[in-house]
Specification:
Number of helices: 20
CATH topology of one domain: BirA Bifunctional Protein, domain 2
Shape: globular
Helix content: 25-40%
CATH class of one domain: Alpha Beta
Largest sheet: 9 strands, mixed
CATH architecture of one domain: 2-Layer Sandwich
Length: 622
């Protein structure tokens, strides 16, 4: 028996396995292992050298002691940060006083008693890769993105993105959606933004376009008979980048379904988002009953009409994790003896006077801060910002004298003011007031830290208007996707004297924590109705046929009722990770000015290449 135990001990001692960093635990003690990776950190404690070895699975501490293996110690003495090495050693228990619970491998360390090999040396990195060091300039990080990705934060983001992708594919596949890859080289069509054009070598003078979305192809799939399609689709739009929009290219979870109505689409979206949020994140989904009795529950998503969202929050992508709703007080200000306010209030169609109440604001903000708020909103075109303070003896404001006691009492009731509250007012043209009061609401929420990063508030924004009027030219154009089904079908277009600006789509967005993360609609599958809609914005039937020939022709051969949705994959991931810069959640992002600093693009090309494409570049001489 003792002999067998001795043999087992020798087997454990000399067993040789190849592992990954962050894999070894106390179960591996006395095993002989081989690890390869990067030197993340090197500490020289007298005679003993400690190295944190890193690979994509993260860290393991290895120890070089000349008493165990002097040759390996001498080799390790030359190692520096980011050197690539291969080491063979024996796992041992870490001394109690050296425990490091911040590492998964905190219970063990590896003593080098066999061999170590330098696989590749490294120059000094242009910035620190230590997670505890101050994050360096973004442009420098993007130029050396392959180094930046060695940081745990970025590496974890890429792992999370992979998990989202895998979960999404599995979720839709199990529910009989067919994953179809649509073309990247397509035709140019008037959609939401400028196209990226690709010249054709075989057909001089003609161009392909990178798809802004796979819209026409997925609608043609419905004509074909593919009743449930999905794709994690690459999309390309020549738009200026911003913090929540990546330059040039992005991805969306793209779906189309036949024989559906709006509630069918709602259900698929809600089921998917509830499942993926609960499975892959620690976030809690808020609902319309979330604020009742201060209990927050999971359940159905919030829902607002487009008009309600704009009037209450000044935006069609409101953050509903907190209150701060705007209240319409234009009727009260119309009775004011102040000519400026009464004049604004006399035009209730084009102007707005909105009140935004901040509970306990009088105890939160100093007078200097409240005066500074006016400077903030002026950056967005505001003419001013006014406020009342609710004191124990009533409202305090320099303009009290312009209101009767009854008007002030009504103001308190409408805004639900309580003692120590502050209510801010925005007044002027409708869109201007909505814009700067929305910005101001977000500004206050960030200052007061009202948004809980552990919570998610999904809100359907429904009943979008079909048409909008250009403020400069007065021309009527589509407010959004022209292929959506009008509420009431074509009848509204045919009625004499119909106010086109009042006609609504079966088209909706989904807002989440202050971002738009989804667009969708029930499609207009009636080709005659489509043509009439385009005619209302000055487009002829021939133009529709020329621009959308495949769809126009296909719709002559029976097309089922169908609807779609597209979830902004990158923006959803950004929200899940509480990241405010969308560029960090891409493996290889473009910079703030739409450049790939790592690959040094865009670049000029050789004249020979241009000649093949029958293109000549004309220099702009100023």
């Amino acid at each position: 028996m003792l002999f067998l135990i001795f043999i087992l001990y020798l087997w454990i001692l000399f067993m040789h396995r190849t592992h990954t960093c962050n894999e070894l635990t106390k179960e591996n003690i006395w095993e002989k292992v081989t690890l390869s990776g990067w030197v993340s950190n090197r500490r020289d404690h007298g005679w003993i050298i400690f190295i944190d070895l890193r690979d994509r699975y993260w860290l393991t501490q290895i120890v070089f002691d000349p008493a165990d293996n002097k040759e390996s110690w001498e080799t390790a003495d030359k190692f520096r940060s980011e050197y690539v090495i291969k080491a063979t050693w024996t796992v041992r228990s870490r001394p109690e006083w050296q425990d490091n619970p911040n590492m998964t491998t905190w219970e063990i360390e590896v003593i080098i008693n066999s061999s170590v090999e330098l696989l590749s040396s490294a120059k000094t990195t242009p910035f620190e890769l230590d997670e505890h060091s101050k994050e360096t300039n973004e442009e420098l990080r993007l130029k050396y993105r392959y180094l930046d990705m060695r940081r745990k934060k970025i590496l974890d983001y890429m792992k999370f993105r992979s998990s989202l992708t895998t979960y999404t594919r599995n979720w839709f596949t199990v529910r009989d959606f067919i994953d179809v890859q649509t073309p990247i080289l397509a035709n140019s069509s008037p959609e939401w933004a400028r196209d990226f054009l690709v010249p054709s070598r075989l057909h001089p003078g003609t161009f392909y376009a990178l798809p802004q979305a796979p819209q026409q192809f997925k609608q043609l799939l419905m004509v074909w008979g593919v009743d449930k399609y999905f794709q994690i689709a690459p999309c390309f739009r020549d738009e200026d980048p911003r913090a929540d929009r990546h330059a040039w290219d992005f991805y969306q979870i793209d779906c189309e379904m036949s024989f559906v109505e709006q509630d069918d689409v709602f259900k698929v979206v809600e089921d998917f988002l509830v499942d993926i949020t609960s499975e892959l994140t620690d976030k809690k989904i808020l609902t319309e009953t979330a604020w009742k009795d201060n209990i927050r529950e999971t359940g159905k998503f919030f829902k607002l009409t487009h008009e309600q969202a704009m009037e209450k929050y000044g935006s069609d992508k409101p953050d509903l994790r907190y209150g701060l709703e705007m209240v319409d007080v234009i009727d009260i200000f119309e009775k004011s003896t102040n000519e400026i306010f009464s004049s604004i209030a006399s035009d209730k169609v084009n102007n707005r006077i909105k009140a935004l109440r901040v509970p306990n604001g009088d105890n939160i903000f100093s007078k200097t801060q409240m005066k500074g708020f006016e400077d903030y909103v002026r950056k967005f075109g505001a003419k001013g910002l006014w406020y009342f303070q609710m004191k124990e003896d009533g409202l305090k404001w320099p303009l009290n004298k312009f209101f009767t006691e009854a008007d002030l009492t009504e103001l308190v009731e409408v805004t639900k003011l309580e003692v120590w509250d502050v209510v801010f007012f925005g007044a002027w043209e409708k869109k201007l007031v909505q814009t700067y009061m929305w910005k101001f609401r977000n500004y206050l929420a960030e200052m007061m830290q009202l948004a809980n990063p552990k919570e998610i508030a999904f809100c359907w924004i429904v009943d979008f208007p079909i048409f909008e009027e250009d403020e400069v030219t007065g021309k009527i154009d589509f407010e959004h996707n022209p292929f959506s089904m009008p509420q009431g079908w074509a009848a509204d277009f045919d009625k004499e004297g119909t106010d086109l600006l009042s006609v609504k789509w079966f088209q909706y967005d989904l807002a989440c924590n202050g971002y738009e993360i989804l667009s969708w609609a029930i499609r207009n599958h009636d080709v005659n109705s489509l043509v009439k809609a385009f005619e209302k914005v000055g487009r002829t039937k021939q133009e529709v046929m020329d621009k959308f020939w495949a769809m126009y022709e296909a719709f002559q051969y029976w097309v089922p009722p169908h609807g779609w949705f597209a979830i902004g994959f990158d923006r959803l991931m950004m929200i899940y990770l509480n990241e405010h810069n969308i560029r960090d959640i891409y493996a290889f992002p473009k910079s703030w000015n739409a450049m790939d600093l790592m690959m040094n693009s865009p670049t000029k090309v050789d004249n020979e290449q241009l000649a093949e494409l029958n293109i000549e570049v004309v220099e702009d001489v100023q």
